[in-house]
Amino acid sequence: MRYKVTVEDVWFSYVRGNPVLKGVTLSASPGEVVAILGPTGCGKSTLLTIMAGLMQPDEGHVLVNGEDLFRNIKALRRHIGLLFQDPEHQLFNATVYDEVAYALRTTGMPEDEVRRRVLEVAEELGIKELLDRRPFKLSVGEKKKVALASILSYDPEILLLDEPTANLCARDEALIISTLTKARQAGKTVVMASHDLEFVFRVADKAYIMGNGTIKAVVKGEDVIKPEILEAAGLTPPLITMVAEHFRISYEEIASLTRVTGERKHQGQSLRLRTKVPVPSSDTVACNHSDKGSG
Ligand SMILES: Nc1ncnc2c1ncn2[C@@H]1O[C@H](COP(=O)(O)OP(=O)(O)OP(=O)(O)O)[C@@H](O)[C@H]1O
Ligand SMILES: [Mg+2]
Question: Which residues have CB under 8 Å from 216's CB, separation 6+?
């Protein structure tokens, strides 16, 4: 089953009389990767926590296929995976293996099937060599990948990801893009908060720009690098925007070169993320990250 998530006029305060969310409305459909952008402290994590059903809004609703999340929380929660901004809040098992297996074991799944699924997800996120390690001894980026694996293991239909690429290197970022691309193709509903504009540009179908507790604008994913949109949102242009400006390359051309969704349309199924660095002559340097080890 596929799930559309709708946030309707949600208000929320940690401290009475000082609302963090002041009437937030947004939606994400199956097969869509939706980003939430906005300055530090504007309420992105608060919103994702409410969408995951961990906190109730003071006013407004979170609807899943039109049904109020909080009226049917027990049944709906197992279809939702929340990746916390701080992976420390997510990890509590003795080993990485147990961490990734945890949710599966709670369903009573036979152990050999649990093992098969754990290994599959560990392979996908490149954490196989971490399986025997203690989660709290890992680096922050490793913890983030393990936390993500602990969610992907039970294959939720709704993925709520808080800063999924924070503390990750470029290769791991490509892994996350590949994971999200697969999620989109499988018809999952993805909502993610991110400060990483290039990542959002590459993978998001649409982006909501938050500020002062409300949604200021909604734009197409490929538009998040456009200066006028960044300016209106109070965001600093990423390098890709400066490169485009400097070499007078149109944003449409940049998008067709580097957006995964664009690549997907051209090349069928598998991820082929190409980064071409345009130079003033007609030479281009192509680097295909999908080939392991090449650069
Ligand atoms: N448990 C809490 N109690 C009181 N205030 C909180 C709590 N959690 C968050 N806040 C406040 O709510 C506001 C929104 O925080 P939130 O973490 O949702 O922002 P954010 O947009 O995710 O920020 P960042 O970009 O830094 O991740 C901030 O002013 C924060 O200080
Ligand atoms: Mg946050």
Answer: 38, 209, 210, 232, 233
> Each residue of 196-246: pLDDT tens digit?
888 999 899 999 999 989 999 999 988 888 888 887 777 778 888 888 888
Alpha carbon dihedral 275, 278, 282, 288, in 10-degree steps, equals -10
**Structural domain that includes position 196:** 5-79+156-235
Q: How confident is the model at residue 260 (pLDDT cuts 50, 70, 90)?
A: low
Residue 212 lies in a domain: yes
Domain membership of residue 112 (yes or no) is no
Indicate the number of domains in the chain: 1
Which neighbouring-strand residues pair with 255?
A: none
Any atom of ligand 1 within 6 Å of the Cβ of 20: yes
85 lines ligand 1 (CB under 6 A): yes
Query: Which ligand is nearest the CA of 24, by number?
Result: 1
CATH number of the domain where residue 226 is located: 3.40.50.300
Bridge partners of residue 199, in order along the sequence: none
Prediction pTM value: 0.87
What is the per-residue pLDDT across 68-112, written as a single tens digit (0 to 9) for each?
A: 999 999 999 999 999 999 999 999 999 999 999 999 999 999 999
Q: Whose CA is nearest to atom 7 of ligand 1?
A: 14
What is the C-alpha to C-alpha distance for residues 289 and 274, in angstroms, rounded to an integer? 7
